[in-house]
Amino acid sequence: MLETYIRSRLAEKKILLMTHIVIGYPTLEISMEIVRTMVAAGVDLMELQIPFSEPIADGPVILKANQQALANGVTVGQCLDFGRRVARQFPIPFLYMTYYNILFKHGVDRFADDMLEAGLQGAIVPDLPPEEAADYLDAMSRNELSPIFIYSPTTSEARMNTIARVADGFVYCVARKGVTGDQTEFSRQIGDYLGRCREATHLPLALGFGVKDKTDVDFLTGKADIAVIGSQTLRVVENQGIGAMGQFIRQVVGG
Amino acid sequence: MIKRGYYGNFGGAFLPEILVATFDELEGVYNDARNDPRFWHDYELLMSSYSCRPTPITYAQNLTSHFGGARIFIKREDLNHTGAHKANNVMGQGLLVKRMGKTRVIAETGAGQHGVATATMAARFGFDCTIYMGEVDVERQRPNVFWMEQLGATVVPVTDGSRILKDAINEAFRDWVTNMDSTHYVLGTACGPHPFPEMVSWFQSIIGKEARRQFMEREGRLPSRVFACVGGGSNAMGVFSGFFDDDVELVGVEAAGRGLDSGEHASRLCSNDASVGVAQGYKTYFLQDDDGQMKETHSIAAGLDYVGVSPILSDLKEKGRVRFEGATDREVIEALRLTMKKEGVIPALESAHAFARAFKEAPEMAADEIILINQSGRGDKDIFTIADAFDDPKWKRFIVEKAKQYHA
After folding, report:
1. I want to staple A226 with a disulfide (CB 3.0 to 4.6 A). Which of A16, A24, A124, B59 is the partner?
2. Would you kindly state where each structural domain of chain B is located, as residue ranges?
3. Tens-place pLDDT, residues B315-348
4. If we measure between CA atoms, which residue out of B168, B153, B316 comes closest to residue B248?
5. Quick one: pLDDT band at residue A255, thresholds 50, 70, 90?
6. In which band, very low, low, confident or very high, does the pLDDT at A187 lie, cut at 50, 70 and 90?
7. What is the largest CA-CA distance in chain A?
8. Confidence class of residue B2 from pLDDT cuts 50, 70 and 90?
């Protein structure tokens, strides 16, 4: 379902844009305002991060957002409710992004059932490799939800093939070593890496980690199907406000 | 797809994709070392010439008569170089780092002992070294920070989260996912993703192997009960592993902090406050809320102040092979005071948890029974915390005077 949507969008534009928010940062109300602004600015799909106290794959910007959201008292229940509201209100696919403990404590089956009921399309769980994902894969598949898996520059060809067999919707290609939000050098290496990813899977490819402006997105056009901007939109919101973030996205999306 | 590193329902390797290849490499080098008898031989040789192995067992005659029950022996891991069992693990991992050809090591530290041990290993083997330490722990363990820096390590205070051990672990992982080509993460305890729980326990098993042999040589029999404090669980795994196949009762002692009912403790296995979860790359009992967010923990001993626990110990608890108890901050201070007065040894605050519990049980035991307490580290590094806990007026005066000198 998610893949079909991505393919149909790709018939109209060369590269799609996925953005990311941390639910409840800085507040639930402002999170809603950010989603509204992003959708209006032309974002094609969005990751909604359910905050976790130990986000080991995230860099300082998203880490602080996780902590602040939790300090504000945001609960998993509120995050699921938030997902339900945005999925009903806005016409783009939404994915949850979170760490496995959130699903595990909620009950993996129950989490997937709640996602389906809320109208979410899939999930990205960065600390859940396929080896540990049997319950999750069953639950997602039963509900026709897309488990998004991750490729990295250190992933071997054989492992990419293995991951491709369980992945659905698209594959999230991490641009480089490190955590979210650091600088990425968009060079020929990234092109070669995306070429390797392309050979391993027929699924659309998203590229994230360090994508920060239109130049980066232009570089990725023709190489990846989806550009992911995460930390950078948070930085723009923090430094210049939501309005500026909307303009920033329109500029990235526009020709 | 093969699930790796499970002990019953616990363990595993919940890794970000970027680290999978690094863990494959580590597991390969570790398995090679384990299957190579020369490796263990070289390791023992290194520990006998660079650290103080074998560490003795000390018969605590005065404590024994004081309690009038079982005879009490102490395994002296405090006599290791840098003053704790942590040396066993870091030197072992250092040998693996050499085999992998890496040039930089990073580590987390709570009490600072693992950080100091890693810094000595890095100096000895010529590795660059960065230590992550929660800001709260930097404040309460300043002497160890001083030593790490003198040994050439960079100490990075971690200001995220609750600013203690778990946050230092997160930050070390963030460094590792960036620098894994040159860098090995010397995880300090029997936690984290596979192969760390098994690998760290293997290096620490040198404690149990020695203790078992020492009892057979000296007493011709094994102890009836072995007590060890449990933070992450590496010293406990180390000493217990010598007795798994024997009729020996194994007791893990966790930090009961201000009491198990107070909510301010770090007891995962002896309280009802923990539940099974997945964080920091492995599945075990965590002190977490119903949403799966980790809770704040408390212990007078920084090295026990941790939300998770070795998955191997979680499994041993469920199987009933290890019994878990708690010791409160107050009981620990009393046990420490008594041990110093009666035996002239100075256990670390962490180790004093094992003493406190053993002292509760010793009087109930028969005179022909034997207790072994693992003194995982020495307490003189805790001088600021212990002096505060003892509320020692002369020490306070000294600090005030010393501060004046710096202002002069």
Report:
1. A16
2. 6-48+86-196, 52-83+205-389
3. 999 999 999 999 999 999 999 999 999 999 999 9
4. B316
5. low
6. confident
7. 45
8. low
Q: Is B166 on the interface with A (CB under 8 A)?
A: yes
Q: Say which of B15, B178, B275 has its CB closest to residue A127.
A: B15
A186 has a pLDDT exceeding 90: no
Closest-CA residue of A relative to B180 is: A177
pLDDT at B90 > cutoff 90: yes
Q: What is the pTM of this model?
A: 0.96
Kind and range of the H or E run holding B114: helix B113-125
Q: Among partner residues A53, A128, A134, which is closest to B14 by beta-carbon distance? A: A128
Residue B124's closest CA among B46, B38, B228, B30? Answer: B46
Q: Cβ–Cβ contacts within 10 Å for residue A77, how many? A: 12
> Of B1, B16, B291, which has the smallest distance from its Cβ to A131's Cβ?
B1
CB atoms B161 and A53 under 8 Å = yes
Domain B52-83+205-389 CATH (choose: 3.40.50.1100, 1.20.1630.10, 3.30.230.10, 3.30.70.2120): 3.40.50.1100
The structural domains of chain A, ordered by start, are 2-147+211-253 (3.20.20.70)
Q: Is A129 in Cβ contact with B2 (below 8 Å)? A: no
CB-based contact B292 A132, cutoff 8 Å: no
Q: How confident is the model at residue A182, as a pLDDT?
A: 80
- SS3 state at A12: coil
Residues 59-88 of A with CB under 8 A from B: 59, 63-64, 67, 70, 75-77
**Mean pLDDT along residues B104-120:** 94
Mean pLDDT of chain B: 95
| Closest chain A CA to residue B173 | A56
Q: Which residue has the tokens 């002296």?
A: B76
Q: What's the half-sphere exposure (Cβ side, CA atoms, 13 Å) at A126?
A: 24
Q: Is B161's Cβ below 8 Å from some Cβ in A? A: yes
**Interface membership of B143 toward A (CB under 8 Å):** no
Cα→Cα distances A60→A181, A242, B172, B323, Å: 7, 20, 13, 40
B408 — pLDDT class (breaks 50, 70, 90):
low
Chain A residues in contact with B181 by the CB 8 A cut-off are 177
Shared fold status for B6-48+86-196 and B52-83+205-389: yes
Give the CATH number of domain B6-48+86-196. 3.40.50.1100
pLDDT digits (tens, 9 = 90+) for B282-306: 999 999 999 999 999 999 998 899 9
Question: What positions of B carry a catalytic annotation?
Answer: 86, 108, 376
Distance from B252 to chain A by nearest Cα, in Å? 26
Out of A128, A162, A178, closest to residue B177 by CB: A178
